[in-house]
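Everyone, carefully examine this protein record:
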Amino acid sequence: MTNAIRIHETGGPEVMRWETVEVGAPGPGQVRLRHEAVGLNFADTYFRSGLYPVPLPNGLGVEAAGVVEAVGEGVTNVAEGDRVTYTGFVNTLGAYSTARIIPATPLIKLPDAISCETAAAMTMRGLTSAYLVRRIWPLQAGDTVLLHAAAGGVGLIVCQWAKLLGLTVIGTVSSEEKAAVARAHGCDHVIFYRREDVAARVREITNGVGVSVVFDSVGKTTFAGSIDSLKRRGLMVCFGTTSGPVEPFNPQQLAMKGSLYLTRPALADYIADPAERDVLAGELFDHVAAGRIRIEINQRYALQDAVQAHRDLEAGKTTGSSVFIV
């Protein structure tokens, strides 16, 4: 028997229940995994609220790290006793648990230098950051980018990685406290989006040119300003919707505003190929192990306190990464 957070209906944080569940033996292609730490991600709130529909009842959470306790028939990529991490979406749903059965395919072996707690705090955020700065656009040293939510989990990793690549980072934040955090991780210029016109400030900072790329995880409330912050033939990367889905718009605007590019990527498509995923993970792990990228775990919760954790996350009270300690 084990414990898990499950939902029987969609809605606010209060729909999550702490339950006792049974975990059996792994079947073909599966492993039984004992969690040591579980990641808290904004995507978890989408499954809970129903924005991402799933059959009910169901578990929550798509990211965790732990130790393989048993392997099923045909599993060759991991063995009993291996320390592993994983992230994904529907195929890994159910991470809010002390132990579970999970397909072996999404599991990534951890190097000795990376703890399970660090892995749970960075696998989704780190791989997201990896594809944003290493795969999605041919960024060159000297380029300037705009990064929304610069003090968030992805934001802090992107800031640090961007500096390794020689980029100039303009970051948006909501408070002086978050501005200090962003600056400490390599953000060159800070815009307070609640009291400043983001696009106007970007033009001021870039002498009217605009930025090469906008990394926008906010969505609805920032989309228009993000588009207006781009230089000619720049790229708008809408990779999240924390403020809600982007409203429909006429693609002709992209031409009128400078022959812009727009993409709405998903992490799943950048880690679907295990070989590509392992290359991205290896680069991430190397930077973290060497101290070139620091993973800030600024909130730790007990798994049974998931309701409070979701409330904090949705209220914008968190910075960096948050984890559940199992």
